[in-house]
Amino acid sequence: MFRRRTKIVDGPVTEEYLRDWLTEQLAARLDLPVPEIDPDKDFESYGMDSRAGMQISGKLEKLLERRLSPAILYEHHSINALVGHLMNGGDDDG
After folding, report:
1. Which of 87, 22, 84 is nearest to 48 (CA)?
2. CA 15, CA 12: separation in Å to the nearest integer?
């Protein structure tokens, strides 16, 4: 399922990389400038709909090359909460 010709990231995904990646994804999906994204602010407060959440979680699965719950952005309510879950050995959710 996660086979591809080239890796998205050379080496392991760091906490900083993941936080920046999620910030950029959220900004792009919501048509907001990156500096307006607060990593501690709830995804819901940005007005993110389920479609955007599913798109980001799908891309996140590919980035991390592991199964995640499609609702992971709703289970961990901010970028920092989600990064913390994923970087601290959060189980594969899907």
Report:
1. 22
2. 10
Locate all alpha helices (DSSP H) within the chain, ordered by sequence: 15-30, 50-64, 72-75, 79-87
Query: Do 77 and 44 touch, CB atoms closer than 8 A?
Result: yes
State how far the Cα of 82 lies from the Cα of 1, in Å rounded to an integer.
23
Please answer whether residues 83 and 50 qualify as being in contact, where contact means their C-beta atoms are separated by less than 8 angstroms. no
pLDDT at 10 over 90: no
Q: What is the pLDDT of residues 14-33, one digit of tens each?
A: 999 999 999 999 999 989 99
Contact 49, 26 (CB under 8 A): no
Model pTM greater than 0.85?
no
Alpha-carbon torsion (29, 8, 93, 37), positive or negative: negative
Q: Are the C-beta atoms of 50 and 84 separated by less than 8 Å?
A: no
